Amino acid sequence: MAKKRSAPVGGRRENRVEPPPPQVNSASGRRNLILFFITSSIIATVAYRFRQSSPPQYQESYVYEQGLVTIHANYQDVLTENSKVSENTSQRHYNYPVLGYITPWNSRGYELAKRFNSKFTHISPVWYDLKSQQTSLVLEGRHNADRGWISELRKSGEALILPRVVLEASPAVLLGKEKQRNKAIKLIVTECKEMGYDGIVLESWSRWAAYGILHDPNMRNLALQFVKQLGDALHSIGSEKISGQRLQLVYVIGPPSSEKLQEHDFGPKDLETLSEAVDGFSLMTYDFSNPHNPGPNAPLKWIQIVLKLLLGNSGSRAQSLAPKILLGFNFYGNDFSLSRDAGGGGAIIGRDYLALLEKHRPELQWDKNSGEHFFIYNDDKDIRHAVFYPSLKSISLRLEEARSWGCGISIWEIGQGLDYFFDLL
Hints:
Layout: H1 27-39, H2 62-65, H3 75-81, E1 98-102, H4 108-115, E2 122-133, E3 136-140, H5 147-156, E4 160-161, E5 164-167, H6 171-174, H7 178-195, E6 199-203, H8 205-211, H9 217-235, E7 248-253, H10 268-274, E8 280-283, H11 300-311, H12 316-321, E9 325-330, E10 333-337, E11 345-348, H13 350-360, E12 365-367, E13 372-378, E14 384-388, H14 392-405, E15 408-412
Parallel strand pairs: 1-2, 1-15, 2-4, 2-5, 5-6, 6-7, 7-8, 8-9, 9-15
Antiparallel strand pairs: 2-3, 10-11, 10-14, 12-13, 13-14
């Protein structure tokens, strides 16, 4: 199963920037939903060009040479070509930062990180949790760290290694007392020194939202100050790998839940507050749909609105902060049941997607409004399903969008994708 990070609290699926797809509540509703997929009325129409020819930066890319980056994708080509990439796997096509997450429950990601190391600027293995232990704090996860893999990764490319740390500790314990804040920062910095990391990826905002502390102005300020203090502490330490390079902090943020920012949302002011202390913001622009509201994983129009909310339409602010945004890309998909009595469905990864294509041989349909491919099939119990999974075309459009803003990208997670996705990076 494609295990993913927790979604931020606050109704990202209930009160978001675009109305959700209609829910299925009858046989007629199921037919309407299928028609809804086909006619692509999920969100307001967004105009963009479909480039069927290879952009200059992709002239030596196998997937472009073979004409695979197209809205007219078919299951045969996916099954035949998904493992094929350009001979020169070290050539980077995307020149802004690229962060790839790796999970210990998906070993394939470790191999892909070594194979395509040069495509990434940052690799983040999901290893650590900072937890409360009675009245103290403990950093758990070193048992996940693979020193041999780290050594091989460093030999095969230049990607920085920033393991993810999730703050599981109670905010009352962690943020309420200066001594505890200092203890948490010391634990993290010490681990980076002892293990030779290049910094960390920190995930805490969604946890703090879940505890409800972001509604309290004082606690919200303490939360921001903690992130700033951690960033400053990491920046005070030199990297063992690169002379003159300081340890880095990447901070995980969720997309605003609606066009009117809520108290728990990470917004433009927060971005500015942390911009000096944080080297990158890993923006989770995926999980737009869910089993209760089946539909695309990350509609392009929604991504554009999220970026506008955080960065504004133009000007010096957007130009200065955009390079620190790492726009989230999902390399997993979803297989949604269209029957209310069938459990709703859930996440799938690359091997699951290929198995569905092999079994059902479906027609891949293109939803021009969301910029995603999908297909419909009936399972062995004759239950209707809708499957949304990334395609070369959907990824290329999101890369173009990120490039137009000057943003980097972050991928959750690289072991869940298909090999030829990396030919676009």
